[in-house]
Amino acid sequence: MTKEELLAAPGRAAEARLTAPRTLAAASSPVVAVALALLLGVALFWPSWAALARLWVDPESRYSHGFLLLAAALVLMARNLPARIDFRAMARSPLAFVALAGASLLWLVAHRAALVTVEQVFALSALLALVYSVFGRRAGTVATMPLALVALA
C-alpha cells in the first residue's frame, strides 16, 4: 500500500501498523525488561557478583561450572518469560518490595561484616525479590528455578 492509500483508509492503516512490528515488540519486551531488571540487581550488588565470578574463574576452585549454569539460567529465563509476562496484567506485589528491602538490608549487613557467602545468598535473594516486585508472581515463579541454578553454582 502506498502512503496515500494508508491515509485514505484509516482503519486499514491502523491495522497494518499493529500487525508485524507490534508482535515482535510484544515478544521481546518482557525479556528486555527482565534483563534490565537483572542488570540493575547485578549493578546494585556488584561486590557479591564480582566475588562469585572470581570464585568461578579460579582454576583451583571446585566451582568452575558457574558460568555454564549462569548461561543455562539465562536461556531458561529467555525461553519461559515471554510466555508468562503480560505487561497489561502485571500484578506487582507490595510484599515483594518489603522482601527486597529486607534482603538488601541483610546484604548490606553481611557486606559490612565481610561475610562473603552470606552476602551472595542475600544478593541472589534480593535479585529474586526484585523480579517478584517489579513483574509480579508469574514472572517471579518463572525466574525462581533459573536463579536457583545460579545459587547452586
List keywords for this structure.
single chain; 153 residues; mainly alpha; 0% strand; globular
| Count of DSSP strands | 0
Mean pLDDT: 79
Element order: H for helix, E for strand: HHHHHHHH
User: Structural class, from secondary structure content?
Assistant: mainly alpha
Profile the largest sheet: none
The parts where pLDDT drops under 50 for at least 5 residues are 16-27
Give the strand content: under 5%
Radius of gyration: 20 Å
Q: Compute the number of helices.
A: 8
Describe the structure.
This protein has helices at 3-8, 10-18, 20-44, 46-57, 66-84, 94-112, 116-135, 137-152. By secondary structure, the chain is an all-alpha fold. Helix 6 (94-112) runs antiparallel to helix 7 (116-135).
Describe, in short, the structure shown.
By secondary structure, the protein is mainly alpha-helical.
List the SSEs and their pairings:
Blueprint: H1 3-8, H2 10-18, H3 20-44, H4 46-57, H5 66-84, H6 94-112, H7 116-135, H8 137-152
